[in-house]
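Quick one, tokens below:
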């Protein structure tokens, strides 16, 4: 966390929810660009909305979503703030007449770019870069093969959804989670027969599922092998599950259906993930 961002110095509103609710009444007929901030004023999410849209994120974080949250990182941060008895600070950066929709979208994208997303070294949990998704999501190669493995292939929307989610955690050349329907056979997890070292890629797989389930990394936590994100059921792929066990990054909790397996984390497992990913990156995503 880094505190207030200078880009927000000219915001038209900055304060807690009760004051925000009174301010929103004055914005009837207008759209606005808003920022959610941690209690220390560090921005963690930028969006655009009308009416009471800015308040919807807290409600989303309090609910259980059958099709998966659109942004688990954002919701995990909100839940952590609420668990600690703190409050979200709200910023209304700018206000626009409804007919200037494009201008508000452009300001949203500008703010995201200038503050920066977590995978870019910034503080925002945003997965997309604003202006819908046209401004770009997490970085990926334009090569066709790598677009399928780690980017957002246009001909495979389910794969694109999970790849975008995973790349919001960290860059990989091959995403370690796949859509359930696109794995020919999901095998029971067993340790790989060859030596394996702990890797960030394997840690990203655990982080993806933990985030999607709203879990925090604490001793005894059981991270499901499968999860749902934006309506797509994903699963930690066979090879990665085997590597996790061989590298002693987690302990398997077996199940008759491999999709129902869990990976249990001890204090040593969590310490290993922290060493691989970094404590700050995990805190920023609401996992610690």
């Amino acid at each position: 966390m880094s505190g207030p961002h200078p880009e927000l110095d000219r915001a038209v509103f900055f304060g807690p929810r009760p004051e925000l609710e009174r301010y929103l009444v004055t914005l009837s007929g207008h759209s606005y660009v808003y920022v959610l901030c941690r209690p220390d004023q560090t921005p963690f999410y930028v969006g655009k909305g009308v009416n009471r849209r800015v308040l919807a994120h807290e409600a989303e974080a309090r609910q259980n979503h059958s099709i998966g949250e659109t942004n688990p990182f954002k919701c995990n941060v909100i839940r952590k703030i609420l668990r600690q008895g703190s409050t979200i600070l709200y910023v209304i950066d700018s206000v626009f007449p409804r007919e200037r929709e494009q201008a508000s979208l452009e300001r949203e994208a500008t703010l995201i770019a200038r503050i920066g997303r977590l995978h870019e070294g910034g503080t925002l949990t945003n997965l997309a870069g604003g202006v819908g998704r046209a401004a770009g999501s997490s970085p990926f190669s334009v090569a066709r093969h790598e677009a399928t493995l780690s980017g957002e292939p246009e001909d495979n929307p389910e794969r694109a959804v999970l790849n975008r989610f995973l790349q919001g955690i960290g860059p990989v050349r091959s995403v370690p989670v796949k859509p359930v329907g696109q794995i020919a056979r999901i095998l029971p997890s067993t340790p790989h027969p060859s030596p394996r070292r702990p890797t960030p890629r394997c840690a990203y797989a655990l982080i993806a599922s933990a985030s999607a389930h709203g879990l925090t990394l604490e001793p005894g936590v059981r991270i499901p092998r499968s999860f749902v994100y934006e309506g797509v059921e994903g699963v930690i792929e066979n090879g990665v599950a085997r590597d996790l066990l061989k590298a002693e990054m987690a302990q398997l909790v077996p199940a008759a259906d491999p999709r129902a397996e869990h990976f249990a984390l001890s204090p040593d497992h969590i310490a290993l993930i922290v060493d691989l990913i970094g404590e700050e990156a995990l805190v920023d995503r609401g996992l610690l």
